[in-house]
Specification:
The chain is an alpha+beta fold. It is built from 11 helices and 26 strands. Helix 4 crosses helix 5.
């Protein structure tokens, strides 16, 4: 059963004044009208506050394990559903002590402002976000959907499915009394492939005669990403979002790409916000890290072939399983590369990287190959053409289990990710608080007895400077 959604919304007031248990209860017009009636009438704009917890996707301590949790001290949002437009001011703080996992931990406290103005190029993305976050957002999205369809569910409930633009459909499960129980969709994740997103609602709170849920929980794949208690402030009042606002980049964020640099004969760093190192091993080359996205990784692959022409990429070395450091691995596999990673990472990566990718097919989807791994237990060496890459499993690191560093004994270079991210400018004094992950990296380098002249962080120094052991020791308070 399908209706053109603009027509459906136009007839909401007339289409249904009976409960869903009546005949024809799962006609889209009937379902939309009943759901709007339960929320007290049409909602065009709203302001609400919340607090609770959020979780950062793909940054867990264990490969395939739960993602790190943060306390949401304040979630202050204003939304114009018709435009759409939105502003969100959020205050977050550390929830786990001691910190475990990624996402810039330890995090003392941060306040961010994000806004999408009416007419912004991001309005389609915003409408989809709101349709997945709020019952009112879903009902509003119905007026912009290409089509709306419905299906009966057990117990007198209905499933209402809409499509916005050409993205994955969004489905709301609506109880027999017209209340929205949950909203589901799929997203294209570079690591997990086609991934379900589910939002559930509990309780009810009121503002200006309209009803909203008082508790929102959202899951991404099998893990929670949001758990908010909310309190409406106002409904159908004027909401003004003057301009798009993004939280500012932190001072350590490097440009997306920077000029490549020769570290030694046959050894090159390809620097940027997410960097890589290419090493000529004779008949082939190895590249350390497949980061950020397929797009960034394809840039790295092209640059590696330019720097070391005529050599295939036989190996891609994965430092750890956080999603921003694994999102490009499939692009390397499409090149014919074997993934070299700590052995404990292989079960998760085997599962995740082989999942379907129908929503956004990537290069490997279009030209399938078997994903192969080379495991590293504690140490492994790749050698060729008089050059060597030594890989070491890091011990006692709270950022993530199965973390490795690469050491190039020729140029005396350590390549690492996330344990130490250089600040935007070199420090002249220790930081006000010492990051335990930095201390753990230094301890491992000393344990291994590595002779190091230079550190290459996958998150490159924003000013492009050379980073050495003196800077690492200073950051570790030593």
């Amino acid at each position: 059963m399908r209706v053109a959604s603009r027509v459906a919304v136009a007839v909401l007031a007339l289409a249904c004044t009976f409960p869903l248990s009546a005949a024809g209860r799962c006609e889209p017009q009937s379902v939309l009208a009943a759901a709007e009636r339960v929320q007290g009438g049409a909602i065009h704009s709203l302001q609400f506050k919340g607090k609770g917890h959020d979780f950062v996707v793909g940054q867990g301590y264990r490969p395939g394990g739960p993602w790190p949790r943060f306390t949401v001290e304040s979630y202050d949002r204003a939304v114009d559903l018709d435009a759409p437009a939105s502003s969100l001011r959020e205050v977050r703080s550390q929830a786990q002590h001691p910190p475990k996992g990624g996402a810039r931990q330890p995090l003392e406290r941060e306040e961010t402002l994000t806004a999408t103005a009416a007419g912004s190029p991001r309005t389609s993305t915003l409408r989809r976000e709101l349709a997945l976050l709020l019952p009112a957002g879903f009902l509003s999205a119905a007026s912009h959907a290409k089509q709306v369809s419905s299906k009966e569910l057990p117990g007198g409930a209905c499933a209402l499915t809409l499509t916005v633009d050409d993205d994955a459909p969004i489905t709301a499960e609506i109880a027999s009394n017209g209340s929205v129980r949950q909203i589901n969709s799929m997203v294209a994740d570079a690591v997990l492939g086609d991934t379900p997103v589910e939002t559930r609602f509990k309780g009810r709170s009121q503002a200006d005669g309209r009803n909203l849920p008082s508790h929102i929980t959202q899951r991404y794949g099998s893990f929670p990403v949001l758990d908010l208690e909310i309190q409406p402030v106002s409904v159908n009042q004027t909401v003004t979002v003057a301009a798009d606002v993004d939280p500012p980049l932190w001072d350590w964020i490097a440009p997306a790409s920077m000029p490549s640099e020769r570290l030694a004969e046959g050894v090159f760093v390809i620097p940027g916000r997410y960097s890589a190192v290419a090493v000529d091993l004779g008949d082939y080359m190895a590249v350390i890290e497949g980061p950020q996205s397929e797009a960034r990784t394809l840039q790295i692959i092209a640059e590696a072939h330019k720097l070391i022409p005529g050599k295939p990429i036989r190996y891609v070395i994965n430092t750890h399983t956080h999603f921003d450091h694994t999102a490009g691995l499939r692009a390397f596999v499409a090149e014919g590369a074997t993934i070299v990673t700590q052995e404990g990472n292989i079960p998760f990566l085997t599962d995740a990287l082989n999942r379907p990718r129908t929503l956004r097919p990537d290069k490997l989807s279009r030209s399938p190959r078997l994903i192969e791994f080379m495991p590293v237990k504690e140490t492994l060496s790749l050698e060729g053409a008089g050059r060597e890459i030594r890989l070491y499993h890091l011990h006692g690191v709270d950022h993530v289990e199965g973390m490795m560093l690469a050491y190039l004994p020729g140029p005396k270079v350590v390549v690492e990710a996330d344990a130490f991210t250089p600040p935007g400018r070199a420090r002249t004094a220790p930081p006000p608080s010492i990051n335990p992950y930095t201390v753990q990296l230094l301890d491992n380098i000393q344990r291994l007895g590595l002779d190091v002249d230079r550190l290459i962080s996958i998150h490159y120094a924003a000013d492009g400077r050379r980073v050495g052991m003196d800077e690492l020791r200073l950051a570790a308070g030593r």
